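User: tokens in, sequence out, please.
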């Protein structure tokens, strides 16, 4: 079985790469393919170097392992050494935690208007609150949590501190748990790859506030298979029949005589598998052969890449730059033709913008309408991503901007 490898955006072999993140450093991410999901650096950039790690890198790794012992795969938020009492780690720097940020924050009127116009740059976005604001949710937003992007926002608004927050122990990251944490007061705003549900609106109303979803990007779901699979395309109905168990051998769709092994995350945990079940499977249950569910996208990719007959799905930005799995072209029907979600190792953004790819969705920032600072922080974040510069950032992250 191929080994996973970690990338933090900084080449360890002393070389420069044309496709690397201009600001380099990002949170360490466990990869399975030949290139990093976050910054596209090749594996050899991380494991090919012989330079000795810096003391700070070792300290960060040790503290991270202590914090996340026993957890493997997935998108990880690594923590460095603890700060003195009364301080908190923000962007690798210990800063004093203000006992009460409210007196220094910008006043807010109840029901801050949702984004109705756009701004040219991040710096021109008004009504940005001061303070530390926690956010989390959908793993599809992982590229937008890159520290380089968070730092870009911080440079535009120095006192607007964003802190990504993992779900409580025993919970897997995803849209659903992010929205729950928002309702429970653990987050200031959340990120979701699927629309809000009626029961979520009701739970918020029962607590005397409302939820609002603001679309900030477009995304497509890519179907991928073990590279030994000979077929190159599937229809949406064939995908449904595979994941519900009606089709269980590749020869039924023009491939070789080989059992199909469908891989999925739990639809109760993430927005992507939940959206897949609702839209592609049309609310039908996954086949028993799908379980046990993969913990996260990294685990699903790993399993498909090493399982003959394996098939899975994930957001396009997490699939297209992988080399140990093969993305498939998808069609609404054979007669209407097939559309490729990837153009080489890049996301084929044109097909998502033109809505010719069959499995396309919008991504949302979920705002807590409570007339308080959490509301203002969510509106500010949505406005930042919807600014002209923010949409460029969305594009650079591998997602598809709304405009």
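Assistant: Sequence out:
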């Amino acid at each position: 079985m191929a080994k996973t490898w970690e990338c933090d955006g900084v080449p360890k072999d002393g070389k420069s790469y044309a496709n690397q993140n201009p600001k380099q450093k990002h949170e360490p991410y466990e990869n399975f393919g030949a290139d990093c999901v976050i910054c596209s650096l090749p594996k050899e950039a991380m494991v090919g170097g012989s330079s000795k790690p810096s003391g700070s890198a070792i300290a960060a790794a040790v503290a991270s392992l202590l914090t996340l012992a026993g957890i493997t795969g997935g998108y990880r938020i690594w923590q460095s050494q603890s700060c003195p009492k009364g301080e908190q780690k923000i962007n690798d720097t210990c800063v004093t935690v203000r006992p009460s940020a409210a007196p220094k924050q910008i006043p807010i009127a109840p029901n801050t208007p949702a984004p109705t116009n756009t701004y040219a740059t991040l710096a021109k976005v008004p009504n940005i609150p001061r303070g530390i604001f926690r956010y989390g949710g959908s793993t599809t937003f992982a590229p937008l949590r890159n520290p380089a992007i968070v730092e870009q926002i911080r440079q535009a608004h120095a006192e607007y501190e964003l802190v990504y927050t993992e779900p409580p122990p025993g919970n897997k990251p995803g849209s659903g748990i992010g929205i729950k944490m928002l309702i429970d007061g653990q987050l200031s705003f959340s990120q979701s790859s699927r629309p809000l549900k009626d029961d979520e609106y009701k739970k918020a109303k029962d607590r005397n506030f409302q939820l609002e979803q603001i679309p900030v990007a477009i995304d497509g779901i890519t179907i991928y298979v073990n590279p030994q699979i000979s077929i190159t395309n599937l229809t949406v109905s064939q995908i449904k029949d595979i994941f519900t168990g009606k089709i269980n051998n590749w020869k039924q769709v023009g491939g070789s005589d080989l059992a199909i092994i469908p891989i999925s995350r739990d639809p109760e945990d993430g927005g992507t598998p939940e959206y897949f079940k609702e839209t592609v499977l049309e609310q039908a249950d996954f086949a028993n052969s799908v379980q046990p569910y993969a913990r996260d996208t990294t685990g699903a990719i790993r399993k498909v890449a090493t399982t003959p007959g394996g098939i899975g799905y994930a957001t396009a930005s997490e699939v297209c730059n992988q080399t140990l799995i093969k993305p498939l072209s998808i069609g609404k029907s054979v007669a209407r033709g097939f559309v490729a979600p990837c153009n080489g190792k890049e996301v084929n953004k044109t097909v998502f913008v033109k809505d010719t790819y069959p499995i396309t969705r919008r991504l949302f920032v979920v705002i807590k309408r409570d007339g308080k600072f959490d509301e203002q922080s969510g509106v500010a974040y949505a406005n930042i991503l919807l600014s002209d510069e923010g949409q460029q950032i969305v594009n650079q992250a591998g997602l598809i901007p709304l405009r």
